[in-house]
Amino acid sequence: MTEPDPDPNPPLLTPRLRLEPQRAGHAPDMAAVLADPRVHDFLPSSPPTQAELRARFARLESRRSPDGTQGWLNWVVFARAGGSALGTVQATVRPAEGEADVAYVFHPSAWGQGYATEAVRVMLDFLASGPGVREAVAQVDTRNAASLRLLTRLGFRRTAFTPHADEFRGVVSDEFTYRLPLAPASG
Ligand SMILES: CC(C)(COP(=O)(O)OP(=O)(O)OC[C@H]1O[C@@H](n2cnc3c(N)ncnc32)[C@H](O)[C@@H]1OP(=O)(O)O)[C@@H](O)C(=O)NCCC(=O)NCCS
After folding, report:
1. Tell me: the pLDDT tens digits for 79-128?
2. Are 86 and 17 in contact (CB under 8 A)?
3. 40 vs 18: CA distance, rounded Å
4. In a 3-state reduction of DSSP, which class is residue 64?
5. Which residues does ligand 1 sit against, CB inside 6 Å?
6. Atom 37 of ligand 1 has which residue's CA nearest to it?
7. Cβ distance 47 to 34 under 8 Å?
8. CA 82-45-9 angle, 5° bins
9. What CATH number is attached to the domain comprising 104?
10. Any bridge partners for residue 13, and if so which?
11. Is residue 62 one of the residues assigned to a domain?
12. Cβ–Cβ under 8 Å, residues 139 and 175
């Protein structure tokens, strides 16, 4: 008998947080998180509608790109104590390179309490526990001080600077690349 493939996007728990595998049904939760314009200050995005999110999340439920080359892992983050969604953590896994591009967005009411640190850390631990991901990679607008502090707190190191990586809302976005080698799980 062959072992079933392990779930690539399972629920995850931390002392304070519950990370649910993102589904189309989370569209209202995440529409509320993404409705605050401050969330998009250093991103090329703008607040989406619930219908847009539902369609996007339905596509992402495949957990894989159509050509099979990428894993699409997405979690919606809640406090274990209950209440509305706090944010999301995401990993785009590129097995050919042994890398995962990570991203995270939290509602401003959840900032400054270490929730993003806790949620991204458990995602990184999960990625490190499986085969295929040797390094996490993050691209960050150079003005995004909170995100840069978060990455440094998690042990990421700055490895590259890309001037004029993007342009949105009439402003040039320069980016840093941050990388974190992931230790394979022992035992
Ligand atoms: C990037 C983002 C997730 C960072 O959120 P954050 O709240 O600063 O990060 P954390 O949840 O880890 O909280 C860390 C802060 O809480 C404080 N804190 C309080 N309790 C804490 C705890 N138990 N553990 C760790 N930090 C704690 C830390 O001191 C830190 O404060 P500081 O940044 O003033 O030094 C948030 O700014 C965001 O969602 N921005 C919009 C989307 C975005 O730009 N995403 C990144 C794209 S690259």
Report:
1. 999 999 999 999 999 999 999 999 999 999 999 999 999 999 999 999 99
2. yes
3. 24
4. strand
5. 39, 42-43, 104-106, 111-117, 140, 144, 146-147, 149-150
6. 146
7. yes
8. 50
9. 3.40.630.30
10. 18
11. yes
12. yes
**Residues 78, 85 contacting (CB under 8 angstroms):** yes
Closest residue by Cα to atom 43, ligand 1, is 105
The pTM assigned to this predicted structure is: 0.96
Residue 43 falls within a domain, yes or no?
Answer: yes
- For residue 108, being part of any structural domain is answered with yes
In a domain? residue 186: no
Distance 151 CA to ligand 1 centre (A): 10
What's the start-to-end Cα distance of the chain, in Å? 24
Q: Please give the distance, rounded to the nearest whole angstrom, from the Cα atom of residue 62 to the centre of ligand 1.
A: 30
Residues 6+ apart with CB under 8 A from 96: 69
Which domain, by its residues, includes 169? Answer: 12-181
